[in-house]
Write a structure and sequence with these properties.
The complex is a heterodimer of chains A (391) and B (327). Chain A is mainly alpha-helical. Chain A has helices spanning 7-24, 27-46, 66-76, 91-100, 113-116, 134-163, 171-175, 194-223, 226-231, 237-267, 274-298, 302-320, 331-337, 341-355, 363-390, and strands at 55-61, 83-88, 105-109, 126-129. The radius of gyration of chain A is 30 Å and the shape is elongated. Chain B is built from 11 helices and 14 strands. Classes of the chains: A mainly alpha (391), B alpha/beta (327).
């Protein structure tokens, strides 16, 4: 009968109508799904595709000495994942391979290298690079530096032996010295793929922008007195606020779930333990909903709500690492990322994706995200009814 | 405020069981008093007009009546239930039609009405039936599925009214429903309100168009600078003001002599020259007509037109506040 609607049902009607409007005017599709996936895809490609950094580095033994043979076989046998080392027969072939793009870079042990170690002026190890493959070039330089360090260590040892009245070791003795060849990998942290990292990052950025529309609409509804029409019925202010909050929550969760599915199926991204990912997604949506509520409560006009939302979205995205992984930033900025829900969400997801963590590992992240949502959310629940016009 | 303000404390109306009863309503914003000591009652089936210029306090008053604003002082009961922002029982008895088109542009009329109907507690089946009924009432049945954003201004206004009727409210509150509406739609809206009043619905109608109040309202309250300065039927207000009729005569000849002759007639308060004629202020215009026509003949004035004008609410408002309603 008229006048007897439960406040929970009223909240659900408000949320349902809000969602219907988002779908109808396509703002959810554009801001919640297409935008973040497109941007995440572009950034993933920019960072080397969905499989992370890959390169092949050629190694040329133009010397043929025991020292050079030992070095080359050590490098070729190194287990370096997507970084491969390939033996190349000549310096010319290596040059051609780098120029053609078949090789990212090449390391050449020059002819007479071992013999030059016994002279006062040893030959340099040559590194062939291309301007198109800067990371591969850095790796090749590091490998060359490793060989040079090993040679210098051997020369130092020889000098010390001679000074002590001993005999100079021969090339075979030098080759027998065990110095490990190490290739240090640098990247976004573990084996997290760009799509698995930037997918949620862009999702969170667009989520803020998307719920900003809800905050703006709430203020528009007040201006056009549509809220008055609702509030003049048997509906409490709390039910209206709860309905809007539910709508934001549903938008957030759905958007991130779809981004998860699309990046996994289309880009091969592995977000990690599904239960942990789901928990982080829900907690992230709670955080965004709470912050959006506070923006709606604090904004004086639709324009100011939109501006505030955009500023908050991009600041959180920048500091939180949605564009640049925090591991690539100075330590101070890395710590700053934990002042944002974006930072907590992305670090939690990276832990799941790269570290193989599970639900327990992301509990601190979930708690932090819920705090980000509940603290401003509770403040908004107190302020919004007054802003809606009851004062 | 004018010295001629009528004390409304003892104004009649509302009967023993009014649908709306307000007393001593007061609302301030900082130092500014928006509404001060406003009281009114509306009986079942009565259409009450709250008239006043923009900024007089009409919207603030109905916001308190509808429980949208907390009041600084005063009482409101709707259908016998105390009203306030959290008074859901009292709110269920009210249908509010805001001045603005309070609808979602990206939903159809049927979807909008279904949403507001469900919020009023109507079940799915009832709301479907009521949506069809109110759309029929406002003549939009064949456009029910169209997005409201694609409607003309008049169609939006009619849907706006329909949304206030869904749950069979006991009191329909219309806040300046014809502002910015074309004449045809305006007439359709006025006819709808007349019909609703005829069906026994109580209506609180705010406007600054006197002709609408005169056409629709059983009683009117005149609001000026937040205070209800007079209340009653149109005839009561005119009588209390003491204003008489006007006989407006246009013609050619010695109009000055004609005006002087009219002024000397019994029952005439005064006669003034106007462009191409004379305006005679008289207590009872009908009784004075014969004398005025004779005076014209005696003064050698050829009458081109003569019109008897009874005082209207515009005159009452001018008399009470010293300013025109649309100032």
């Amino acid at each position: 009968m008229p006048g007897h609607v439960s406040q929970l049902r009223a909240a659900l009607f408000v949320a349902g109508t809000d969602l219907r409007r988002r779908v109808r005017n396509r703002s959810f599709l554009v801001q919640g799904i297409v935008g973040p996936i497109a941007l995440a895809g572009i950034i993933s490609l920019a960072f080397g595709g969905s499989g992370g950094f890959e390169a092949t580095i050629g190694v040329v033994d133009a010397d043929g000495s025991p020292v050079a043979r030992e070095f080359v076989s050590g490098v070729i046998g190194a287990d370096t994942g997507d970084l491969r080392f390939e033996r190349v027969e000549s310096t010319e072939a290596a040059r051609a391979g780098v120029d053609d793009g078949d090789l990212g870079a090449a390391v050449v042990v020059p002819d007479g290298f071992a013999a030059s170690l016994e002279t006062g002026a040893p030959d340099d190890v040559v590194v062939l690079t291309s301007a198109d493959a800067t990371i591969a070039a850095e790796v090749a330089r590091a490998v060359a530096a490793g060989l040079t360090d090993r040679a210098n260590a051997a020369r130092l040892g020889a000098a010390a032996t001679v000074a002590a009245g001993g005999e100079l070791p021969g090339p075979d003795d030098l080759a027998a010295v065990e110095l490990p060849v190490e290739v240090e990998a640098t990247g976004t942290g573990g084996d997290v793929s760009p799509a698995a990292y930037f997918g949620p990052g862009m999702g969170l950025l667009f989520l803020f922008l998307s719920v900003g529309v809800v905050a703006r609409d709430l203020l528009a509804d007040r201006r056009t007195r549509l809220l008055d029409r609702i509030r003049a019925g048997p509906v409490s202010d709390g039910a209206i606020v709860a309905g809007k909050g539910l709508s934001v929550l549903a938008i957030g969760v759905t958007s991130l779930l779809v981004i998860w599915a699309v990046t996994a199926l289309a880009l091969g991204a592995d977000w990690g333990d599904p239960a942990g990912v789901t928990l982080l997604i829900v907690a992230s949506a709670v955080a965004v909903a709470g912050i959006a509520g506070l923006i709606a409560a604090g904004a004086r006009s639709e324009q100011s709500a939109e501006t505030l939302t955009t500023v908050v979205a991009f600041v959180f995205a920048m500091i939180g690492g949605a564009f640049i992984p925090p591991g690539s930033l100075p330590e101070a900025l890395q710590r700053l990322s934990l002042l944002t829900p974006t930072g907590w969400a992305l670090q939690g997801l990276a832990d799941l994706s790269a570290g193989g963590g599970d639900v327990v590992d992301v509990v601190p992240h979930v708690v932090a995200l819920l705090a980000f949502g509940l603290v401003p959310g509770l403040a908004a629940a107190r302020l919004l009814p007054r802003r809606l016009g009851a004062g | 405020m004018a010295d001629t303000a009528i004390d409304v404390a003892g104004a009649a109306g509302g009967g023993a069981d009014p649908v709306l009863a307000c007393r001593g309503l007061r609302k301030t914003y900082g130092e500014r008093v928006a509404v001060d000591d406003v009281g009114l009652t509306i009986a079942r089936g009565e259409t009450y007009g709250l008239i006043g210029p923009n900024g007089a306090g009409k919207t603030t008053t109905i916001s308190m009546v509808c429980g949208l604003l907390t009041r600084d002082a005063g009482e409101v009961t709707v259908a016998g239930r105390p009203m306030g922002p959290a008074a859901t029982d009292a709110k269920a008895a009210i249908g509010l039609v805001p001045q603005e088109v309070a609808l979602y542009d990206d939903l159809s009329a049927a979807e909008n009405l279904t949403f507001f109907g469900r919020l009023q507690g109507l079940d799915r089946r009832t709301v479907a039936a009521r949506v069809a009924e109110v759309l029929e009432l406002v003549g939009l049945t064949d456009r029910a599925g169209d997005r409201v954003g694609a409607y003309s201004g008049g169609m939006k206004r009619r849907t706006n009214i329909a949304a206030g009727l869904l749950h069979h409210p006991q009191l329909l509150v219309l806040d300046e429903p014809t502002v910015g509406v074309d004449p045809q739609s305006r007439n359709a809206i006025l006819e709808s309100v007349e019909a609703l009043g005829g069906e026994g619905l109580s209506v609180l109608y705010t406007t600054h168009y006197m002709e609408e109040a005169e056409r629709l309202c059983d009683r009117v309250g005149i609001l000026d600078e937040g205070r209800l300065v007079a209340e009653g039927t149109r005839r009561e207000l005119v009588a209390r003001l003491g204003a008489g009729d006007r006989v407006e005569v246009s013609g050619t000849g010695d109009l000055d002599a004609f005006a002087a002759a009219c002024a000397a007639l019994p029952g005439v308060v005064g006669a003034d020259r106007r462009d191409g004629g004379v305006v005679v202020r008289v207590g009872d215009g009908s009784a004075a007509l014969a004398g005025i026509v004779a005076a014209a003949a005696a003064a050698g004035v050829a009458i081109a037109g003569i019109e008897l004008v009874e005082p209207d609410l515009e005159d009452v408002f001018l008399g009470l506040t010293g300013k025109a309603l649309r100032d």
